[in-house]
């Protein structure tokens, strides 16, 4: 054991409270979030919102956990541990979404600027349903407590009914989200364009080379990395840029476990 190793033992890391479903394939949901958060240098506190039956391509069944159990999972953590950011994936049900919103409101009584990242997963890449209720209205309680929402193109169209990026962002900002990062992975062309819109009028875009293939859990990876970067104290544009660079590297080094969607290499370093 060298001196550098000894010096890091017991060093406290910032924690990200993560609400997401369990994906048995290990490619999306909680499994993706834990690795992506750890890769940034933070620690994930995973609260399971739903159990799923799925592989790396399809979701066959979703069983939400009871909202009371979700609250007990979160309470046990928040009673003892400092929370530096929150990341939300599928709530699994409208009741769970409302419960998660309650947890955030409670945390913000003492941490008014606690960052909350929402990945509004409305369906799998193949359109499979990911909750027991209509996903769009189920997310409504979460929008007013969201620091940054990270929808892809199909998700933002369903959420807003608009096909114009500026209009989409304006609708989500009006519903309470403080920042919107519209991701372009479902588009066409040689580049993926991601656009940031802030409540104070900020606007910025990034372009990344479009990679061949399809990936399982890319949205989870990006949103979790953003939450971890914010937990580490990065300001919003820097957190968004660092998380995108990490996500692109993870996709560029993706590997296969079966035919179909590839698994991002979330243990990558830039």
Walk me through what this model shows:
The chain has a nine-stranded mixed sheet, with helices on both faces. It is of the alpha/beta class. It starts with a helix and ends in an 18-residue tail after the last helix.
Outline of the structure:
By secondary structure, the chain is an alpha/beta fold.
Which terms summarize this structure?
20% strand, disordered N terminus, alpha/beta, 9 helices, nine-stranded mixed sheet, 270 residues
Q: How are the strands ordered across the major sheet?
A: 3-2-1-4-5-6-7-8-9
What does the overall shape look like? globular
Number of helices: 9
Give the averaged pLDDT, no decimals. Answer: 91
Structural class: alpha/beta
Report low-confidence residues grouped into runs of 5 or more: 1-7, 124-130
Biggest sheet features: 9 strands, mixed
Helix-strand string = HEHEEHEHEHEHHEEEHH
Rg, rounded, reads 17 Å
Query: How much of the sequence is in beta strands?
Result: 15-25%
Distance between the termini: 26 Å
Helix content: 25-40%
Total beta-strand segments: 9
């Amino acid at each position: 054991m060298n001196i550098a190793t000894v010096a890091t033992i017991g060093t406290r890391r910032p924690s990200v409270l993560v609400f997401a479903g369990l994906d048995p394939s290990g490619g999306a949901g909680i499994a993706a979030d834990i690795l992506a958060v750890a890769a940034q240098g933070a620690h994930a506190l995973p609260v399971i919102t739903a159990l799923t039956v799925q592989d790396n391509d399809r979701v066959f069944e979703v069983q939400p956990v009871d909202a009371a159990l979700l609250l007990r999972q979160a309470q046990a953590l928040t009673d003892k541990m400092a929370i530096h950011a929150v990341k939300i994936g599928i709530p699994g049900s409208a009741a769970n979404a409302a419960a998660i919103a309650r947890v955030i409101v409670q945390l913000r009584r003492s941490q008014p600027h606690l960052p909350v990242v929402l990945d509004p997963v409305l369906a799998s890449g193949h359109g499979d349903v990911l909750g027991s209720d209509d996903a769009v209205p189920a997310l409504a309680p979460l929008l007013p407590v969201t620091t940054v929402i990270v929808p892809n193109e199909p998700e933002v169209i369903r959420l807003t009914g608009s096909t114009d990026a500026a209009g989409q962002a304006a609708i989500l900002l009006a519903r309470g989200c403080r920042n919107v990062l519209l991701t372009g992975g479902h588009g066409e062309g040689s580049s993926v364009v991601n656009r940031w819109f802030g409540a104070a009028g900020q606007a910025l875009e990034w372009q990344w080379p479009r990679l061949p293939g399809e990936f399982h859990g890319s949205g989870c990876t990006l949103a979790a990395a953003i939450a971890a970067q914010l937990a580490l104290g990065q300001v919003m544009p820097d957190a968004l840029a660092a998380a995108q660079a990490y996500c692109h590297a993870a996709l560029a080094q993706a590997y296969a476990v079966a035919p179909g969607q590839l698994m991002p290499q979330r243990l990558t370093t830039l």
